[in-house]
């Protein structure tokens, strides 16, 4: 496959990766001598780690004309820094093609996987853990009372779980399910002034972050998936509706392996045969 030579800046490399011009060929990412597979998630790992030789942020994508029907500049550009809120990370990820988002929800199910997708998982849980730790510190500084003990315990349990989840030993979908349950329990036990209002507001912000993450990873209502490589991805847990467009060969399989959870809205069952891993 012939490609026009591009500057060895990270941005140019990432554009090629996201746009799908590497395919199965091998191409340098950081230097001429270091060879890595041209998979989006490999490049994503370098991106989130900040481990590349880049030009100015504006150099992330060139804008000198169309290629394969896509304009130059299509894609996410540089990722938000670690200090940015999770909403910025979610917005950045949403700007990627569908297959890249499917990579994230698939590869994070394998605890032994080491790619940029797991870097997304780690950054997300790291942000969650930081917020919960701030609440935990605050409630302990306020001191224990019999009225607060249940609320404090629920926050301690939540913080302990997130410390373990950061190790990435279990599938992301499992850890997100547990986190959602523990967070809901903490919210229920911190009503009626059990903790300071500003501390409870942090928990409410976490619940909103979690809803937005669920939307990013699982909500495919109205999406056009006809060009997605579904055979290599985990589909369990995906939400879809009558406006979701599937490849013809998948329409019946998806319908037969989904449950209606709201009028006209369906979720692919958890026991739907998973695929996944790097192709």
Describe the structure.
The protein is mainly alpha-helical and 279 residues long. The protein folds into three domains: 10-107, no CATH class; 116-213; 221-279, no CATH class. The chain is 47% helix and 8% strand. The chain is built from nine helices and seven strands. The longest helix is centred in the middle third of the chain and has 26 residues, at 116-141. The chain is globular, with a radius of gyration of 21 Å.
Low-confidence stretches: 1-12, 17-38, 51-75, 275-279
What's the total helix number? Answer: 9
Q: How would you sum up the major sheet?
A: 3 strands, antiparallel
Shape: globular
- Largest beta sheet: strand ordering: 5-7-6
**Radius of gyration of CA atoms, rounded to a whole number:** 21 Å
Overall average residue pLDDT:
75
Q: Whole-Å distance between the termini?
A: 19 Å
Order of helices and strands: HEEHEEHHHHHHEHEE
The percent range for helix content is 40-55%
Assembly type of the chains comes to: single chain
Category from helices, strands and their pairing: mainly alpha
The counted number of beta strands is: 7
Sheet-strand content, in percent, reads: 5-15%
